[in-house]
Amino acid sequence: MRILIPVLLLMTTAAPLSAAERIEYRMSPGFAYSFDNTTDAASVLDVTADGQRTTLEQKLKQRVKGAVEVLESSDGVPTRLKIYFDPVSGSTTTTFGNTEELPFALAGKTVDVAVRDEQVVSIRGADGRELSRAGALDEDSLSIVSEIAVAERAMLPDDPVAIGDGWTATLEREDRPLTPQLNFDVAGFGDRAGRRIVKADADGTLTGTQHGLDMHGELSGPLIFDVQSGMPVSSRLSGSIAVNGTVEQNGTAMAVAGSQFVTITTNVEIGSVSMPETAPVTAGTVAVNTGQATPSDWTEFRHSLGATLEHPSAWRTEEFPEGVRIHPAGAGSSETIVVTGIAANGATDPAAPDVGAYLDATLQQMMPGLRRVEGPVPVDAAGGRGALYSYAGTGFDGSEVLCNVYVTIENGVAFSLSAVAPPATLRSRTGTLEKIFASIRSGSPASPAAAAGGSTPTGDDPRLIGMFRGESLAGGDYGGAYVNTQLVYVLNADGTVYSGAQSHFSSSSRDYNGNLRWSASGVTDGSVQSGRWSARGGMLTVVWDNGQRAVFAYGFEPDGSLVIRHPTTRKLINFFSRVR
């Protein structure tokens, strides 16, 4: 569900500048440096399919930190390098207010990289295992390695340059769908950390086509180059990238239009570096793992609301109010695995038509390019019956993806495991995903007060503590029935919640001439239910004593009124004024 637009990482490209001096790379064996680079991007994309438009707002933060040592070079250009990636390397995306971490497959690892004709031809782990073969690393990881390792001669001017001179570099490469064209202007010289530097201003364009989408952007900003080696030691480029195009899948056309604003920073320190001894990059830490984990390699995850599941120990979990995100070791940004639990609202059969219709409608809104191709198919589930629904189509970037949704219903809670990934990746995960799904069990939530060691649960919003009153009005159609329901919620500091409701109704019937035939009115007995509440990340979760669960997005008006919205669509549900 992401469009990750490649951006230029100016890390190993450039050259020394001096008055009337030819620029060329001067990186011999033993040359070493550390790097800490970041990319911040904010996207707003409108996706239209079957007459329905979805606006996708997404923020991306990427950090790539580590160290490089040149092992071999030719004419000053590295041909073999040792690259260490710090464990902090990775990305996060925020979509519809939900933040997801995207682990980097090589974080905490050291690789030996060979380059020939400005192409990475080999990536070997600490154990000598070849990682550049198809499927061993995800595309994002391969792209990052390439941007660090490859020094492009096209970046350098053909003639000597001095202060005030400029040149244009067109950086076209087969493995780069978007072509940067940058204009450099030499602004001055100076010193940095005892080394001679040159200051330059850059501006240019980024154009090309990716997955059928036309992209055009502009980048500009200052750069500082190390004169002795040609390495850029500091840069900050930013600009806007426009995205337009139409992607077709199974006869359905998806129109995509929008923009992304991106800021790229590069920081390099030249000198001796530390290359920590790291564990080999094994099959368990790359994006595609055709083997299945054994039971001894698994561990249990327990949600704060009591539900449990088992997963491979090497896979990371990220809890959120209504479920958990699961991150396979080495997974790329194109893969998403989420387990959620919501109130079943009376449903008991995961294969029932209304369950399938709900899933179809939800996925149509979230990913318009997907269509159900199979299901429901019976699968094993710890709580009894399970059902698998399979979808296929394209993601927002036009790439081919598959989506499997596993559903089971236990104790009034509908649990689902949803996995979205490229076809080869999802197929390789099937056995593991089925094991995870079969291990999902409902449970009793831990005491929120105990979790915090005090009266208010950890992560809870103290603004929610109090009494709130609201109402809902229904009816008014041909039947002439109106129902006004008074709603009261009491959320206590010890994590308990009480809800009371009383309905006033009136109904009447008239003939075709408008004459009253009969009328009736009344009041229902007030009903009260109790449970426990928790809040985190703008989501309010209530688990009632009867096992039902409800999850809402919430916010507050300036007057203190509580606003409740749908957790996914953010559609308004109701307003509640504060009583106390």
Notable characteristics:
580 residues, mainly beta, Lipovitellin-phosvitin complex, beta-sheet shell regions, Protein Transport Mog1p, Chain A, Lipocalin, 13-stranded antiparallel sheet, 8-stranded antiparallel beta barrel, 4 helices
3D structure, described in words:
The protein has 580 residues and is mainly beta. It has three domains: 32-270, Lipovitellin-phosvitin complex, beta-sheet shell regions (Roll); 295-438, Protein Transport Mog1p, Chain A (3-Layer(aba) Sandwich); 448-578, Lipocalin (Beta Barrel). It is 8% helix and 54% strand. The chain contains four helices and 31 strands. The strands form four sheets. Strands 1, 2, 3, 4, 5, 6, 7, 8, 9, 10, 11, 12 and 13 form a 13-stranded antiparallel β-sheet that branches. An eight-stranded antiparallel barrel has the order 23-24-25-27-28-29-30-31. Strands 16-17-18-22-21-20-19 form a seven-stranded antiparallel β-sheet, with helices on both faces. Mean pLDDT is 77; it is low at 1-18, 282-295, 445-459, 473-483, 503-509 and 517-526.
Give the gist of this structure:
With 580 residues, the protein is mainly beta. It is built from four helices and 31 strands.
Helix and strand content put the structural class at: mainly beta
The overall pLDDT, averaged over residues, is 77
Oligomer: single chain
Shape: elongated
- CATH fold type of the largest domain: Lipovitellin-phosvitin complex, beta-sheet shell regions
Distance separating the two termini: 42 Å
